[in-house]
Amino acid sequence: MILITGGAGYIGSHTNKALHNAGYDTVVVDNLCKGYENFVKWGNFENYDFGSKTLREVFEKYDIDGVIHFAAFSSVAESVEMPQKYFKNNYKNTLNLLQIMREFGVNKFILSSTAAVYGNPDKVPITEDQDLKPINPYGHSKFITEKALEREAEKNDFNFVSLRYFNAAGADFDCEVGEFHDPETHLIPLVLDAAIGKRESISIFGDDYNTADGTCVRDYIHVNDLADAHIRAYEYLCDKNESNIFNLGNGQGYSVREVIDMCKKVTGRDFEVKIDERREGDPDILIADSAKIKEKLGWTPKYNLEQIVESAWKWHKKINVI
Ligand code: UFG
Fold first, then answer.
1. Whether pLDDT at 322 is above 70
2. For the chain, N or C: smaller number of CB within 10 Å?
3. Assembly ipTM
4. Region 35-59: what's the mean pLDDT?
C-alpha cells in the first residue's frame, strides 16, 4: 500500500489515478485544507494532517510500503508574505511524517520538490548539480527538506527520491480530476479564466526581465507526465537501495507572453492583456535539463505546451459552465 499525502490535491490526485491504473493500492491522507475529497476517486481516503501525531493511526490501520509526499503549501507569492507558514508546514511537518515512518519501518519516500530550489540559476537548462540558492521561502522550505532527507538516508535504512517539478500544468484528459486552486494564482488557469470570460483581462507580472520578450520564462510540464515519473521513482526505490534527486521538466522554456498566445490559439478567444508590476520572488528563467531522469528511470515527457493547454481548457470548460 502506498500512502499519498496531499492526494486530494492537484498533482496528488492525478498521481493517485495513475498508480491505480498501474495496479497499486493507495491510501490518500489529506486534511482538505487545499484538496477536495471528490478528487479522491481511487483507493482509500483518510482525513488527517500530515503534521499531526495522530497520523500514526493511518500507519496502524494500513500496511504502508512507501510514502509519496505531495502535501505542502506551494504558492511562491504567499510564501514571500508568510514565510513561517511555509517552513512550518513544508519542512517541520515533514519531519513529523519521517519520524512516524521510521517508527513503522517504512523506508521509501518520494518528495514533491521544486525548481524553486535553484533560485536564479547560473545557467539554463538547469542540471541537478547546480548550486541551490532559493530566492523565496517556498523554494527554501523544499531545499532544507531535501537536506533533511539526505541526512536521514546517510544514517538510516531509508531511501528517497526528490522530484524537482518545474511548472506543473494541464489536466487529466478524461476530466475526472484537474487543476482547481482557491485562490488561483497560476498563469494558465488564470489566462483560461480570461478566455472563458470569468475575468476581464490577464496581467503580465513584469515585462522587464532578462529574457527575449522581457517576460518570465518557465518550463511547463503536463501533470500526467509528472504522475508517470512518480510511478517510475517508486519502482526505482523498490528495485535499488539508493536515493536520488531528479528534475522534471520538458526542457523547453516559454515566456508568459508565449503562454498567453498559446491559450488564445487553443481557445480561439481574445481578451485584454495588461502589463503589471513584477511579482516578488520570480526568477527570470527556469528551464529543466531532465537528462538524468531520462537516463536513470527511462522517463520522457509525452505532452507539449499545446497539449497541456488543450487538456487544461477541456477541464476549465467542464468546471465553468459556459
Ligand atoms: N504570471 C503572470 N500573471 C499572472 C500569473 C502568473 O504574469 O496572473 C507569471 C508569473 O509571474 C510567472 C509565470 O507567470 O513568471 C508563472 O507563474 P505561476 O504562478 O503559474 O508559477 P510559478 O513559476 O510562480 O510557480 C510554479 C509553482 C511553484 C514552483 C514553480 C517552479 O507554483 O510551486 O512553478 O518553477 F516552485
1. no
2. C
3. 0.97
4. 97
